[in-house]
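Students often ask why we bother encoding 3D structure as a string. The short answer is that it lets us treat folding as translation between two languages. Here is a chain of 222 residues written in the first language.
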Amino acid sequence: MRHFAPLVAILLLLQAGCSTFKKDDKVLITVFSQGSDMDSPKSIFRRNVEGREVILKVIPEFTHKSIIAFHPFPAEDGTYGVALKLDFKGANALEIVTRTRQGEMLVSMVNGAIVDYVTIDGIVNNGIFTIWRGLPEELIAVMDEEYPRISALKKSTKDTPYEQLDMLPSTSKEKKEVHDRVKDDAKKEEKDAKRRARGEFDPEPPTPGGVVPLSEALNEGQ
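And here it is in the second language, the structure alphabet:
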């Protein structure tokens, strides 16, 4: 019965026509807000969170599909936490729920298991949501295959339209293009670092104006 509730939640999502989950998704991240006994029984499920039964809405506020980039960090319990940079849709959902559901909980699940929760005590309008604990190191490695790091994203999108807050990649194609850009930049940096370590350097290009045209030289000689 322990894993029955999240299974029901996922089935209800699929029945509702939601395409949140795909077979090739290796890390399923879902963030749920609180529901109540007044909600339709089909729209809520119950889970035990640190000894307390909590009613959660079946439809998540946002999922891993809204992640643009992430930043992992070690948690106090020996696992890892992650800061998630969300796309426009996810950032908008996060701002709305933190603006309208003050004092309630947001519960984070990873691959169907609750790993963390936070109590909403302020409005989050920067599009960054933090899961403070609960991810094993191997999942961080999997996420590195799927998403760029936030620091690398900032560096690779500098001087591009994506540097603007309102130009965040939102479609799967755009996110893949940004991720590919980050990986290409990382490979180039690694290649350049190896060349520098071997003492290899690109020749300096000639300085403009450093060569006097022949016609000018002849005129000066007259």
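Translate back mentally: Confidence is low (pLDDT under 50) at residues 1-6, 9-21, 162-166. Keep this in mind for the problem set.
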